[in-house]
C-alpha cells in the first residue's frame, strides 16, 4: 500500500489505538446517522447553537460543518498522535477567536466556555454511542463505559479538563438530567431543524433528497430522546419502531464491503492500516469482553 504520508511515524497508534473501543466503533457506517442526531441535539442548547449561527452562515455551510466534524473525528481516531494534537490545536485556536451575543441581555460570551464545549462534546459522543448500540453494533455496557472514558482524550483536545467530562453511562445520564432545564428549541434550533429536513440542493436532486436524505434525517431525528421531540414540537415516534428501523438500516449499511466504504476521502482508516499494518483493521469482533 502507498497511502502512508511522509512524516507519519510508522507504528504510531495515535490517540486511541487499535485496541480501543473507539477504534472499532468509529469505522461503522451508522456513525453518519449518529452525526446528524448530534446536530439535532446540540441545537437545543440556545447558547451553544447561537455561537454557531452568529459565526457562520449555517444554511450555506452546513455540509462543510458536518464534513469538518467528520474529518476531526476521523483524524483524532485514526491519525497519528501528532495529527490529533494538531487538529485539536486548530479547533482551540478558532474557538478562542469567536464569540456570540445574547439578544435578550446583550451579554457577550466566548464559544469556548467550558459549559458550551462540554454540551457539544456530550451531545456528540452520546449520540455516537446511542445510535451504534441501538442499531445493533455489539457494544456491551462495559464497552460503552470504556468508550466514554476514552473520549476524555478528545474532550481534552477541544479545550476541556478531562476530569470534568463524564466517563461512564451513569455520569453521562446525570449530566443530561442536569442540563435539561437549560435546553429549548428557539429560532436557531428550528433553523437547524428546517435545514436538516430540507437541505438546499440542485433542482435535479430534489427527488433524491425526498427519497434518500429525508429518510436518513428523519431516522436521526426519531432516535432523539423524548424531551428533544417535545422541545422541537413534533410527535415522538414509537420507540420500538425506531429501534427496528435503526437495526434494519444498520444491517443494510453493514453489508457494503468495508474496503469500499473506506475508499471515501480522506481515507483515514486506510491510512491507519497502511501505517500500522492490516491487523489494525477495525472490526466489531475485536472489541473483546
Written description of the protein model:
InterPro entries: MPAB/Lcp_cat_dom. This is DUF2236 domain-containing protein. It comes from Streptomyces vinaceusdrappus. Residues 23-254 form the ER-bound oxygenase mpaB/mpaB'/Rubber oxygenase catalytic domain. With 289 residues, this protein is mostly helical. The protein has helices at residues 21-25, 31-42, 46-53, 58-78, 81-96, 114-134, 141-150, 152-157, 169-179, 187-197, 206-222, 226-232, 239-254, 258-261, 268-276, and strands spanning 99-101, 108-110. Strands 1-2 form a two-stranded antiparallel ribbon. Helix 4 runs antiparallel to helix 5 (81-96). The chain is globular. The two termini are 32 Å apart.
Question: What descriptive keywords fit this protein?
Answer:
289 residues; globular; 60% helix; two-stranded antiparallel sheet; DUF2236 domain-containing protein; mainly alpha
Shape: globular
What's the story with the biggest beta sheet? 2 strands, antiparallel
What is the count of helical runs? 15
Cα-atom radius of gyration: 19 Å
Structural class: mainly alpha
Strand content: under 5%
- Largest sheet, order of strands side by side? 1-2
- Average pLDDT confidence is 91
Q: List the uncertain runs.
A: 1-7
Helix and strand run: HHHHHEEHHHHHHHHHH
Distance between the termini: 32 Å
Number of strands: 2
Instruction: Report helical residue fraction.
Output: 55-70%
Please give the oligomerization state of what you see: single chain
InterPro entries: MPAB/Lcp_cat_dom
Organism: Streptomyces vinaceusdrappus
Pfam families: MPAB_Lcp_cat
Protein name: DUF2236 domain-containing protein
Amino acid at each position: 500500500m502507498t497511502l502512508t504520508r511522509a512524516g507519519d511515524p510508522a507504528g504510531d497508534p495515535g490517540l486511541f489505538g487499535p485496541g480501543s473501543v473507539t477504534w472499532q466503533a468509529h469505522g461503522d457506517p451508522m456513525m453518519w446517522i449518529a452525526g446528524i442526531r448530534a446536530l439535532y441535539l446540540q441545537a437545543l442548547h440556545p447558547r451553544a447553537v447561537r455561537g454557531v449561527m452568529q459565526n457562520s452562515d449555517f444554511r450555506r455551510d452546513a455540509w462543510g460543518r458536518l464534513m469538518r466534524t467528520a474529518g476531526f473525528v476521523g483524524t483524532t481516531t485514526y491519525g497519528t498522535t501528532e495529527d490529533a494534537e494538531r487538529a485539536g490545536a486548530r479547533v482551540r485556536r478558532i474557538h478562542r477567536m469567536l464569540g456570540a451575543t445574547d439578544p435578550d441581555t446583550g451579554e457577550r460570551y466566548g464559544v469556548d466556555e467550558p459549559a458550551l464545549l462540554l454540551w457539544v462534546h456530550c451531545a456528540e459522543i452520546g449520540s455516537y454511542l446511542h445510535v451504534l448500540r441501538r442499531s445493533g453494533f455489539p457494544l456491551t455496557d462495559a464497552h460503552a463505559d470504556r468508550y466514554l472514558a476514552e473520549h476524555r482524550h478528545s474532550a481534552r483536545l477541544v479545550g476541556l479538563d478531562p476530569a470534568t467530562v463524564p466517563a461512564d453511562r451513569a455520569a453521562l445520564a446525570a449530566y443530561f438530567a442536569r442540563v435539561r432545564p437549560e435546553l429549548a428549541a428557539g429560532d436557531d434550533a428550528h433553523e437547524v431543524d428546517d435545514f436538516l429536513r430540507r437541505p438546499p440542493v440542485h433542482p435535479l436532486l430534489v427527488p433524491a433528497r425526498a427519497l434518500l436524505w429525508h429518510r436518513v434525517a428523519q431516522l436521526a431525528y426519531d432516535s432523539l430522546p423524548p424531551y428533544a421531540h417535545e422541545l422541537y414540537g413534533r410527535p415522538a415516534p414509537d420507540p420500538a419502531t425506531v429501534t427496528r428501523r435503526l437495526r434494519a438500516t444498520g444491517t443494510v449499511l453493514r453489508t457494503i464491503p468495508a474496503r469500499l466504504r473506506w475508499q471515501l476521502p480522506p481515507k483515514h482508516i486506510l491510512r491507519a492500516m497502511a501505517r500500522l499494518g492490516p491487523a489494525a483493521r477495525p472490526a466489531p469482533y475485536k472489541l473483546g469482553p
